[in-house]
Amino acid sequence: MKVTCLTFNPFQENTYLLHDDTKECVVIDPGCYERAEQEQLKKYIEDNGLKVVRLLNTHCHIDHVLGNAFVANTYKVGLEIHPEDEQVLRAVPTYAPNYGFPLYAEQLPASYLKEGDTVKFGNTELQVLFMPGHAPGHVVFYNGPEKVCIGGDVLFRGSIGRTDLPGGDFDTLIQSIKDKMFALPDDVTVYPGHGPETTIGFEKKSNPFLR
Description:
Blueprint: E1 2-8, E2 13-19, E3 24-28, H1 35-47, E4 51-56, H2 62-65, H3 68-75, E5 79-81, H4 86-95, E6 111-112, E7 118-121, E8 124-130, E9 139-143, E10 148-152, E11 155-156, E12 159-160, H5 170-179, E13 189-192, E14 198-199, H6 200-206
Parallel strand pairs: 3-4, 4-5, 5-6, 10-13
Antiparallel strand pairs: 1-2, 2-3, 7-8, 8-9, 9-10, 11-12, 13-14
């Protein structure tokens, strides 16, 4: 499985494209808002001969959903989120103009993800793990054989997701990380929603929020 990161919008949000030898591709948290960003995503998919088969959100804060409608409409795929984050998604149009995104196009979910679900594409499977705290319906996507975790805004290199937004809770986030994220092997690479990747082992040793 190949993991590609494209960083979009003023929040410097990491959009992930996952694909394997079958060329089937999953898009996670598309943050592309400007036309140039949308074209960059489209060009990568075309240049690599990929077929987009799934559209997933780790959670539904504005910076992670700006490109949902573009991906859904361009590739004819339905949006998949955790049901606890639908309220977060439905709130985005009310504040998008205030954040400088007056042209935000709403895309509502076509289906829902829950703890223990398996996301399948090509010859690859991702395990859905429910990790609330940053957002009420936050999930991460874990591939055990490849030791890869697409972690959204739960755990960052040397930091954790903010908990001062509606639906956020610090104690819940810390519990999610300690009970579930840190239950993964130390050599798992975590690809976060912002900034560089890290590993479970590195964060166990050095993350100041989790000592």
